[in-house]
From TrEMBL:
Pfam families: adh_short_C2
Protein name, UniProt field: Short chain dehydrogenase
Keyword Oxidoreductase recorded: yes
Domain of life: Bacteria
Length: 113
């Protein structure tokens, strides 16, 4: 993966996972109620990489860095948090993977309440 990651445009998930969530926060600024909360999603690969996960780990780390900055800018108006759920059971099943420490999506969803 490292050899094939030659520019920002080639990072998998960059447009959807990073840009989509950044835009969500940007668009919410003028509409969120005082004391409201925005919760974004990162991923386990920023802290616990596996072989071939460099590009995805970068995108996850970018989401986490953005949340830290956005939380400072919105302090007193709204909370901005990030959830890093780890491996989700249904995703692993759909991609034919197995991992001993996976979590069902219904349990992960509780973190967003």
């Amino acid at each position: 993966m490292l050899a094939s990651t030659n520019s920002r445009s080639s990072l998998p998930g960059d447009e959807n996972k990073l840009t989509g969530q950044v835009n969500l926060v940007r668009c919410s600024v003028g509409h969120i109620t005082q004391g409201g909360s925005l919760t974004l999603t990162s991923g386990i690969l920023s802290l616990h990489p596996v072989t071939g996960s460099a590009a995805v780990g970068i995108v996850n780390a970018e989401v986490e860095a953005f949340v830290r900055s956005a939380a400072l800018e919105l302090h007193g108006k709204a909370r901005v948090n990030v959830v890093s759920p780890g491996w989700v059971s249904e995703t692993l099943a759909a991609t034919g993977q197995a991992y001993s420490a996976d979590t069902p999506a219904a349990v992960v969803a509780q973190a967003y309440r």
